[in-house]
Amino acid sequence: MKTYGLLGQHLSHSHSPALHGLLGDYPYALIEKSPEELEGFLKQGDFEGLNVTIPYKKAVLPFMDELSPRAQATGSVNTILRREDGTLFGDNTDWEGFAYLLRELGQSPSGKKVLVLGSGGASQTVQAVLKELGARVTVISRRGPDHYGNLERHRDADWIINTTPVGMYPHNGEKPLQLEGFPSLSYAIDLIYNPLRTALLMEAEARGIPCQSGLPMLVAQAFTSSRLWGRTEKTEADLPALTRALQEGQENIILIGMPGSGKSTLARRAGEETGRPVYDSDEEFSEEEGLSPEQYIHQYGEDAFREKETKILARLGALSGAVIATGGGAVTRPENYPLLHQNGRIIWLRRPLSALDISAKPLFHRPDLTVLYEERKALYQSWADEAWDCE
Questions:
Q1: Same structural domain for residues 134 and 222?
Q2: Cα distance between residue 378 and residue 317, in whole Å
Q3: Of 4, 114, 147, 360, which cross-links 49 as Cys (Cβ 3.0–4.6 Å)?
Q4: Does 361 qualify as catalytic in the annotation?
């Protein structure tokens, strides 16, 4: 059987197998190789086609027997085809992926001053597409005339595009720069797609700046790769639906709401129906600390509990494709929102106060459940992507 896969160094949380499963019926594996193993694998490995990711998009060049014009122009290969005679053909389908992302945005970079963060293989491709479309491109890197130490000279930037891995899982929460220094910014793009919303994109959201992750680019380049290999019957018209399907599969379902609103029960039910792994932040806390949240609050106070809860939510929120039930007071700490929002669709379970099951729930040492609800109602509402009414 012909085999295909993604070649890289650290790939355990790649979305590529799920994506190629949507494109066609062919085996697709994650292939982790060290730099020392690269040459031997490319010359002797049992594969018909490969995608290539960090850090090998340039490193594979010497082993290609032929390069496509776009791979030649960018000096970067992200797709390999083993031809019938055994020779390796290197292509750059990231080009079409990024061009597709721009088409989907409905925004032209023509005449725009665009800061491209990073100078690696992905950056070379992005630069080439932008220049072909008439953008004024400035590359920001750690070295060279334009770097992170003199960003003030580029306050007039119209767009910022991150092509670096800064902020990619497992380094969620990191970002290459702050957006406050760019008053003219009208678009922010981050090619990272895990997490779905990086810290850079969430800052753009908070500032009202239109933004986009690299997920449409990932889908389009994978489609173009699969078409090169002759393994898909999909067309470009299918790509928006494929992008939605991939996002929905990778998004966490996050349940928020008052204690006793049924979050844990519904999470378990959703896990059983969808096959998703299920996590309950209160149960995770009890397992880590050996005390229930109520016991811990009684001994050490609510502030101490909330600090530990945030660490648990940071770990759970970085997951993909899970169902996560949160504690009723998780919304009381603003720093928890980006932890859950980065990969999650947040659902508020609204249940009448009279129907809440408050047995064995923490925080009910407070005098009035109605007061507690009124304190949190606006937070639940502002955090939620959806609200479900439960009887």
A1: no
A2: 22
A3: 4
A4: no
Looking at the fold, whether 264 and 349 belong to one and the same domain comes out as yes
What is the amino acid identity at position 381?
A: Q
End-to-end CA distance of the chain: 53
Asked if 46 and 4 touch (Cβ cutoff 8 Å), the reply is: no
For residue 144, the model assigns a pLDDT of: 86
- Give me the helices (H) in the chain, please: 16-23, 38-44, 69-74, 94-105, 121-132, 199-206, 215-229, 239-250, 263-274, 281-289, 293-300, 302-317, 336-341, 369-383
Nearest C-alpha neighbor of 255 from the set 247, 267, 272, 265: 267
Is residue 102 in some structural domain?
A: no
Angle at 55 between CA 53 and CA 56, to 5 degrees: 70
Question: Which one-letter DSSP state was computed for residue 157?
Answer: -
**Nearest C-alpha neighbor of 248 from the set 37, 24, 7, 19:** 19
- DSSP H or E run through 82: strand 79-82
- DSSP H/E element including 349: strand 344-350
Shared domain for 143 and 168, answered yes or no, is: yes
What is the domain-level CATH number for residue 279?
3.40.50.300
Q: Are residues 263 and 385 in the same domain?
A: yes
Shared domain for 225 and 80, answered yes or no, is yes
Q: Which two tokens stand for residue 222?
A: 């994978």
Query: Any residues with CB less than 8 A from the CB of 21 and at least 6 apart, and which?
Result: 28
The low-confidence residues of the chain, meaning pLDDT below 50, are: 364
Can you give the pLDDT at residue 362?
55
Residues 40-69: tens digit of each pLDDT: 999 998 899 999 998 899 999 999 999 999
Three-class DSSP category at 122: helix
The verdict on 170 and 232 lying in the same domain is no
Count of the separate structural domains present in the chain:
3
| Cα-based angle 199, 204, 208 (whole degrees, multiple of 5) | 150
- Residue 359 CA to residue 142 CA, distance in Å, equals 56
Dist CA 87 CA 68 (whole Å): 14
* 176-210 exposure pattern, b = at least 16 Cβ within 10 A, e = fewer: bbebeebeebebbbbbbbbbbbbbbbbbbeeeebe
List pLDDT tens digits, range 90-116.
Answer: 999 999 999 999 999 998 999 999 999
Beta-carbon contacts of residue 126 (< 8 Å; ≥ 6 apart): 98, 116, 161, 163, 191
Please indicate, yes or no, whether the overall pTM of this predicted structure exceeds 0.85.
yes
Considering the candidates 2, 33, 43, 57, report the single residue annotated as catalytic: 57
